[in-house]
Amino acid sequence: MKVGIIGSTGYAGAEIVRLLYGHPDAEIVWYGSRSYIDKKFSEVFGNMFQLVTDLCRGEDIEELARQADVIFTATPQGYCATLVSEEVLSQTKIIDLSADFRIKDVGIYEKWYGIKHASPEYIEEAVYGLCEVNRDKVRDARLIANPGCYPTCSFLSVYPLLKEGIIDKNTIIIDAKSGVSGAGRGAKVNNLYCEVNESIKAYGVAKHRHTPEIEEQLSYAAEEDVLISFTPHLVPMNRGILVTAYASLNKKITEDEARAIYYKYYDDEFFVRVLEKGICPETRWVEGSNFADVNVVIDERTNRAVMMGAIDNVVKGAAGQAVQNMNIMFGLREETGLNFAPMFP
User: Fold this and answer.
1) 304-311 and 292-299: which strand pairing?
2) What is the model's pTM?
3) In the chain, where are the structural domains located?
4) What's the distance, Cα to Cα, between the start and end of the chain in Å?
5) With 90 as the cut, is the pLDDT of residue 186 above it?
6) Crossing angle of helices 320-329/131-139, nearest 10°?
7) What gap in Å lies between CA 212 and CA 148, rounded to an integer?
8) Which residues are known catalytic residues?
9) DSSP string, 95-151
10) pLDDT tens, 54-106?
11) Using an 8 Å Cβ cutoff, are 117 and 100 in contact?
């Protein structure tokens, strides 16, 4: 497959490059970058020295569509929507890592992201690329909305018990923590080393942009509207997301019964690992990988389920899931190019 990447010099774009370097069925033909045109990709990311010799190019989507079988757009919110057209989609497939096509209600998108959608006519067609739930739709798609990092980890953590009606959908609280790479590669004072080291903070409280995305996907699972409390936190590490979610139980259930539900949904999912009883997910055990580790504890004292998950925000939360979607779209094994163990330390 011929692959093009627009936004190849951001964290997610660079991770796609790293993953596809070891992919047996993909060849990158276009390293798109607005900031580094005509500069060697390996000069921007020294880890790819002597591995990638290509120069960064611009963002000519029409020319790229003629050359590539699939295009990854790892770009800021609002940009991909300006690129999509019938001419482009008639020649290639697009996997968009921004939020432009994730939310089906354009009014909600514009409210939470504060921008006008440039191509709302493609929102309905776009498939939400959460592979473990939507793979049948992904197979035939030409436009994929790659899920956000927080939504991926939140959904996979909560989904089994919500789908089975075990938890009260009106009581879901999601506490999430992310490494600094989740904020992107752009220079921001709040992300400087001295600003984040030896500290942890909540941000986007009651207004984080991933809230409606999580709610929409959980609503599909519950088959009725779901409203959540979602609070993200910034922690001083490079990669990783940890989610701890709480919800009241609708019925009495033992921990073994709850864990059996997780196995029911994830036993055949290569990239979702249900941990052994009593083991809590840790970001260090998924770092650099496309795995999502999940588990559940039943707190009988408070009649609540405590649902937990951990992913690498740059891999399963972005680039890895995008490659997983690409594999499904082109009829490959989902693990192709992604079948490697997490790195430690």
Assistant:
1) antiparallel
2) 0.97
3) 2-125, 150-313
4) 33
5) no
6) 40
7) 11
8) 149
9) EE-SSTTT-S-HHHHHHHH-S--S-GGGTTT-EE--HHHHHHHHHT-SEEEPPPHHH
10) 999 999 999 999 999 999 999 999 999 999 999 999 999 999 999 999 999 99
11) yes
2-125 against 150-313: fold identical:
no
In which residue are the tokens 């036993």 written?
267
Closest CA to 242 of 232, 227, 253, 257: 232
What's the angle, vertex CA 181, arms to CA 179 and CA 186, rounded to 5? 140
Structure tokens at 282: 């840790």
CB 250 within 8 A of CB 276: no
The two three-digit tokens of residue 80, written as one number: 């991909």
Angle 24-18-73 (CA atoms, 0-180°, nearest 5)?
A: 95
Q: How far is the C-alpha of 263 from the C-alpha of 192, rounded, in Å?
A: 41
Q: If DSSP codes are grouped into helix, strand and coil, which group holds residue 82?
A: helix
Regarding the domain delimited by 150-313, which CATH topology (the fold level of the hierarchy) does it fall under?
Answer: Dihydrodipicolinate Reductase; domain 2 (3.30.360)
Instruction: Using the structure block, give the residue that is written with the tokens 């999940």.
Output: 294
| 2-125 CATH | 3.40.50.720
If pLDDT is split at 50, 70 and 90, which confidence band does 190 have? confident
Rounded Cα gap, residues 143 and 90, in angstroms: 11
